[in-house]
Amino acid sequence: MNILAIESSCDETAAAIVQDGIKVLSSTIATSTELHEKTGGVVPEVAARKQLESIVPVIDDCLLKSNLTPSEIDAIAVTVGPGLIGSLLVGVESAKALAVAWNKPLIPVNHLVGHIYANFINTDPLPTFPAIALVVSGGHTDLVLLHGHNNLEYLGGTLDDAAGEAFDKTARLLNIKAYLGGPALSKKAAECVQNTLIGKLPRPKIHDNDFDFSFSGLKSAVRRMVEEEDNPIETVACEFENAVVDVLVKKTIKAVKKYNVSCLLLGGGVAANTQLRTRMKNSMDELNLPLFIPPLSLCGDNAIYIASTAYFNYNPVDISTIKANPSLTILD
Ligand code: KG4
Ligand code: ZN
Q1: For range 215-240, the mean pLDDT
Q2: What is the position in ligand 1's atom list of the atom closest to the CA of 276?
Q3: C-beta separation of 227 from 215 below 8 A
Q4: Contact at 8 Å (CB) between 271 and 136?
Q5: pLDDT confidence of residue 264
Q6: Is the model's pLDDT at 179 over the cut of 90?
Q7: Predicted confidence band at 34 (pLDDT cuts at 50, 70, 90)?
Q8: Which residues, listed in sequence order, are joined to residue 158 by a DSSP beta bridge?
Q9: Residue nearest to atom 2 of ligand 1 (CA)
Q10: By CB count within 10 A, which of 45, 158, 194, 234 is most buried?
Q11: Are 133 and 116 in contact (CB under 8 A)?
Q12: How many other C-beta atoms lie within 10 A of the C-beta of residue 230?
């Protein structure tokens, strides 16, 4: 089955055609990052306008590269949320138009669930259930138990800032100038030869019995540390990264053990973080259980995993009921 998917939740306009949920036939991504670099963050209206400009050329290019004709596409999939409403609407309405024009089923996809399915692309053997998934992105941090496709149980998530958001805000605090603070902060942290501040920042909720996270206090602690002491930026960045990764690894592994699952899946932009990848891998190796982490190219937003999600959770719905929903949660 060939699914053409469209993703436009934020500042990437993406289309992809994926066969049977795992084989990428073509993928095209346009991004408006350059525009947002100038303003130091995404301006929703600017992102939406750019989505409008890009959507038709992106779908066109994706179809052309696949060498398929519309008659060889079996279904259309689209991200319906969460994200920026203006951006989402562009993708959702374009997908509806395409589904009507080509007379194809349309499958609505949750962007957060999509991040998990980045682990199914070109993967052999595929992840098995039950599994724990940790989704760490710019706007969300969710820990879920997957009983099967279309069968998610929410275990916990952030009570305030998402992991990526904490990286981005802390990067700004440390005067690390980059549109995406996460990778820039991580690069700075890698320059630290020895973390002389080890343990000086809190590891919020690390010993709590729940599976929730909280990162806003950590950011405030960094602010105080910077204001009150004179430490090299790379050392503060390193200690901050250690603190976030300590909490993510400890609580995720606790869930893996408690639910006796067969594997762990990471997803979302922060899954590109080298320290998180390495330490999660070491911890899963100790348990002798497989860890699935998408390649870096599939950690950020794209339409490939939207197609994969649609295939494994195949659920076409009446086109008139499909609506963009900026505040969708991972369970919706
Ligand atoms: O999933 P994503 O591309 O977009 C959303 O759906 O939010 O995630 C973007 C987030 C940003 O906060 C970015 O700073 C963070 O992922 N990120 C990283 C790294 N690469 C991206 N955070 C830490 N380390 C990285 N290497
Ligand atoms: Zn995302």
Answers
A1: 94
A2: 24
A3: no
A4: yes
A5: 98
A6: no
A7: confident
A8: 213
A9: 269
A10: 158
A11: yes
A12: 5
Q: What span, in angstroms and rounded, lies between the C-alpha atoms of 147 and 153?
A: 7
Pocket test for ligand 1, best of 88, 167, 330 (most atoms within 8 A of CB): 167
Cα separation, 93 vs 91, in Å, equals 6
Token pair of 205 as six digits:
């909720």
Residues with CB under 6 Å of ligand 1 are 137-139, 164-165, 167-168, 180-183, 186, 268-270, 272-273, 300-301
The residue whose C-alpha atom lies closest to atom 13 belonging to ligand 1 is 182
CA dihedral 106, 110, 116, 118 (to 10 degrees): 40
Instruction: List Cα–Cα distances, 206 to 4, 245, 252, 283, 286, in angstroms.
Output: 41, 11, 10, 16, 20
Of all helices (H) and strands (E), which one includes residue 274? helix 274-287
Provide the total of helices (H) and of strands (E) in the chain, helices listed first.
10, 10
Q: Token pair 């724990």 is at which residue?
A: 132
